[in-house]
Design brief:
2 helices, 4 strands, globular, alpha+beta, 66 residues, four-stranded antiparallel beta sheet
Length: 66
């Protein structure tokens, strides 16, 4: 699975395993977190969001724990 660098003040890179529906987010402070059962639409929304940190806070944080 490839981590894609993103332009964000909070997030450094994002990876997504479509088969497992697992999302990986590497934050600027260096920690990488995984999120389970994440629909592809959420991943696509994150990648296209103008504020990736804001999208994370609204649609991912606390919702897809493994």
């Amino acid at each position: 699975m490839e981590m894609v660098l993103v332009i964000s003040s909070a997030i450094d890179a994002v990876g997504y395993d479509k088969d497992r529906q697992q999302l990986f987010i590497k934050f600027k402070q260096g920690d990488t977190y995984s999120f389970c059962r994440v629909p592809e639409s959420i991943h696509q929304g994150l990648m296209s969001a103008s504020s990736k940190g804001g999208y994370y806070d609204s649609f991912i944080k606390g919702k897809f724990d493994c």
